[in-house]
């Protein structure tokens, strides 16, 4: 989202690197992703949620691979206008 808003090459490179890393981590859990819970259990959990779970991973990957501007980022107060 930062690259889309600013056009800065450093943000583009970081977005690609994180998308590749995220896809490489796919394995077990909800939608192929698990989240680490250091506070409650100090272990990896199946988490379907938006903030730390598989739904958030799916929305982030969707936002990175489509031309459609995400609107879900408004609820996280991190929406940015594209340039």
Helix/strand layout:
Elements lengths: L1 H5 L2 H16 L10 E3 L5 E3 L8 H12 L18
Provide structural commentary:
The protein is mainly α and 83 residues long. It contains three helices and two strands, in the order H-H-E-E-H. A two-stranded antiparallel ribbon has the order 1-2. A hairpin with a 5-residue loop joins strand 1 and strand 2. The chain is globular, with a radius of gyration of 14 Å. The termini are close together.
Order of helices and strands: HHEEH
What's the oligomerization state? single chain
State the share of residues found in helices, binned by percent: 25-40%
Q: Structural class, judged by helices and strands?
A: mainly alpha
Which spans of ≥5 residues are poorly predicted at pLDDT below 50?
A: none
Q: Would you kindly provide a brief summary of this structure?
A:
This protein is mainly alpha-helical.
Features:
mainly alpha; 83 residues; 3 helices; 7% strand; two-stranded antiparallel sheet
